[in-house]
Amino acid sequence: MPKTALITGASSGIGLKLAKLFARDKVDLVLVARNAEKLDEIAHDLSAQYGITATVIVSDLSQPDAAAELFRETQTRGLTIDYLVNNAGFGVLDKFLNTDLNRELEMIQLHVATTTTLTKLYAAEMAAQGGGRILNVASTAAFQPGPWMAVYYATKAYMLSYSEAANEALRGSGVTVTCLCPGPTPTNFQVRAKNRKKGILRHVKTSVEFVARKGYTAMHRGKPLVIPGLLNRLGVFAVRFLPRRVATFLSRKAAEKS
After folding, report:
1. Whole-angstrom Cα distance, residue 136 to residue 116?
2. 84 near 6, Cβ under 8 Å?
3. Which fold, 4-255?
């Protein structure tokens, strides 16, 4: 019987690349995002190319109760989820006093509440059916504060801590939780965050394809954490030895517009 992967934020970027990897391996898909037209196009193309079943569910997961409604929808449709990818996310980049509080609250809802809800609900379902794999897409931002993206960095830190704790807590259940922490990656995320800087971060970019493959492999192996790219891993390692105040200052300088 074919397995099924549910992917949020599946209409572009890392989510889309992961969808293609699952489809290539003959895993049926549940594609979730806000753009119905784009999802329908992707579902049609992947179904035709790989002979899998791709189901589209349109949802804005930054809204309260949307995650619980998504879970109920898959249950109503009789969909058994073997793989869950919490990939949907966005960032807001600006000076602290200039950022939109309402957008930041939506970010907290999406990165924190939605990730928590979907991980919890589907992990319980997976454990009951004998096992499953969960991939939560965070960021190298999870390892230090970020003054120009304070809420984004903080929510990604939550995702990392929650994922590592959940993975350990689920030991022996057959369910694993992997946290994928990419560095700067050219996706629509950067466009939405208005992150088109010419500063030092441009030198540490990794491709979407590379990030997706690393996350996909780590998830299947049940690894708790994966940081794609040597420079990203070195950066995360170095931060551990810096005083928090220094790490925060350097994070600010790296993100400021040139």
Report:
1. 10
2. yes
3. Rossmann fold (3.40.50)
